[in-house]
């Protein structure tokens, strides 16, 4: 039997289409339990590669012959070894090209809507890590919002769309992933916007992004209106794009809300978070389609792989928006919080420009799920 | 720390550091100590988990200039 290769793009399609897949994850148990490839119809078997060095006989019976089998490891090497052993034993299996490293870095662009006068908005789904970033396009110009460090993907995408990136925006100082915003702005001579309250310690120049700022893309009026919405960080800012979409950053997700503890003490910002979600957002049109900066679970994906929902629908079904009692709300967002994202302090310092880790170190820092939300 | 044998697995990517460690441990007597040098960051968790599942003991672990060093006592 030959060993097949599956790319992250192909696995992403499998996730989006709710197809079946059997994943043999050969990383160690703690890495597997911390973070794995998630899919609606995926089955898993976790046996570390170092327990299979003498052969795969012991697991042969547990591997199905009637569905696709994908062997996964951290960087690829061990999954190739195990896949070859299984193949020699007569099974038809694939390994994941580039391993979880590549999975963590894969971005899938999905169009989420049309804007005024031929404009478009795309969501870049970082499926392996749950990060969402955006590109707004209109008349040959583009804005990128909450870019990841895989900057070439946005640069190439804009070029293929015949657009020049004019504005790069981060809704807040990220703690779970390294921002590509500054790099993209430097390479394209675009304006880099950051909320000043999150940028007090940054070591580079930026354009302060403040409540009421309007950013226009193209010569038509695709309007990006900034709305100060603190709570996840003190500077967190949302955007109403073309009066149709609400880019909510890490404040409001589909099935959860932002956590207030990644840049300081949860107690300090819980009041801001409450004010943003229960007052400022309540004043907005319920017809706005919320586009968050993260998803937590695969259930939050729509049929086309995008992550979005009407604000009005979230007011009804998002638990975090439906806690009348302030004390109960305070408890939810300050107690029993999930573990903090891997290396979140170093990631914040990188995004401030204080430290400059190399590519391998950046990858290492971003390993694992994003964990920016509370449910 | 006194080691019976030193294994230089620097520059090798996963799964080679563990394959080499397994082979080297196989050549030792119970109670003897193997010193392993690797540059594969993943080895930190993997070698520790492997040693545990094989009944060996990681006596000491050090990280310096991106070289990971393990002292493993054969169980």
From TrEMBL, chain A:
Q: Which InterPro entries match?
A: Metallo-B-lactamas (IPR001279), Mito_Persulfide_Diox (IPR051682), POD-like_MBL-fold (IPR044528), Rhodanese-like_dom (IPR001763), Rhodanese-like_dom_sf (IPR036873), RibonucZ/Hydroxyglut_hydro (IPR036866)
Q: Which residues form the Rhodanese domain?
A: 17-112
User: Which Pfam family is one of this chain's hits?
Assistant: Rhodanese
Q: Which Gene3D superfamilies match?
A: Rhodanese-like domain, Ribonuclease Z/Hydroxyacylglutathione hydrolase-like
Q: Which SMART domains match?
A: Lactamase_B, RHOD
**Which SUPFAM superfamilies does the annotation name?**
Metallo-hydrolase/oxidoreductase, Rhodanese/Cell cycle control phosphatase
Q: Which CDD domains match?
A: POD-like_MBL-fold
Quote the protein name from its UniProt record.
Answer: Glyoxylase-like metal-dependent hydrolase (Beta-lactamase superfamily II)
Top-down, what is the taxonomic lineage of the species of origin?
Bacteria, Bacillati, Bacillota, Bacilli, Bacillales
Automatic annotation (TrEMBL), chain B:
Q: Where is the UPF0033 domain?
A: 7-31
Q: Which Pfam families match?
A: TusA
Looking up InterPro entries in the UniProt record yields:
TusA-like, TusA-like_sf
Q: Which family does it belong to?
A: Belongs to the sulfur carrier protein TusA family.
- PANTHER family assigned: SULFUR CARRIER PROTEIN YEDF-RELATED (PTHR33279:SF6)
**What is this protein called in UniProt?**
TusA-related sulfurtransferase
């Amino acid at each position: 039997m030959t060993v097949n290769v599956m790319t992250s793009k192909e696995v992403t399609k499998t996730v989006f289409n709710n197809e079946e897949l059997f994943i043999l994850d050969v990383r160690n148990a703690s890495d597997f339990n911390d973070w794995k490839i998630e899919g609606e119809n995926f089955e898993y078997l976790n046996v570390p590669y170092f327990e299979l060095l003498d052969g795969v006989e012991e697991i042969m019976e547990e591997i199905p012959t009637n569905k696709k089998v994908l062997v996964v490891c951290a960087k690829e090497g061990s999954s190739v070894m195990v896949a070859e052993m299984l193949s020699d034993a007569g099974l038809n299996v694939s390994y994941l090209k580039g391993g979880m490293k590549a999975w963590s870095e894969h971005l899938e662009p999905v169009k989420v809507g049309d804007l005024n006068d031929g404009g478009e908005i795309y969501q870049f789904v970082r499926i392996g890590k749950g990060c969402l970033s955006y590109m707004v396009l209109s008349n040959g110009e583009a804005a990128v919002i909450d870019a990841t460090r895989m900057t070439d993907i946005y640069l190439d995408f804009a070029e293929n769309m015949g657009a020049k990136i004019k504005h790069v925006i981060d809704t807040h100082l990220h703690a779970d992933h390294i921002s590509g915003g500054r790099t993209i702005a430097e390479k394209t001579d675009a304006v880099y916007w950051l909320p000043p309250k999150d940028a007090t310690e940054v070591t580079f120049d930026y354009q302060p992004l403040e409540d009421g700022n309007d950013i226009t893309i193209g010569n038509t009026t695709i309007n990006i209106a900034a709305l100060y919405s603190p709570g996840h960080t003190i500077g967190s800012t949302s955007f109403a794009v073309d009066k149709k979409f609400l880019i909510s950053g890490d404040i409001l997700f589909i099935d959860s809300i932002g956590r207030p503890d990644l840049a300081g003490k949860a107690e300090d910002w819980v009041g801001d978070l409450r004010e943003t979600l229960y007052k400022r957002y309540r004043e907005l049109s319920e017809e706005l389609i919320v586009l968050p900066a993260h998803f937590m679970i695969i259930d939050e994906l729509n049929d086309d792989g995008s992550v979005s929902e009407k604000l009005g629908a979230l007011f009804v079904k998002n638990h975090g928006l439906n806690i009348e009692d302030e004390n109960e709300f305070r408890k939810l967002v300050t107690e029993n919080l999930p573990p903090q994202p891997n290396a979140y302090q170093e990631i914040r310092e990188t995004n401030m420009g204080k430290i400059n880790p190399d590519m391998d170190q950046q990858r290492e820092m971003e390993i694992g799920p994003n964990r920016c939300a509370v449910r | 720390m006194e080691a019976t044998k030193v294994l230089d697995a620097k520059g090798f990517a996963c799964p080679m550091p563990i394959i080499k460690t397994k082979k080297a441990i196989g050549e030792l007597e119970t109670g003897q100590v193997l010193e392993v040098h690797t540059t594969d960051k993943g080895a930190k968790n993997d070698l520790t988990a492997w040693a545990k599942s094989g009944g060996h003991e990681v006596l000491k672990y050090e990280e310096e200039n991106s070289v990971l060093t393990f002292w493993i006592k054969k169980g």
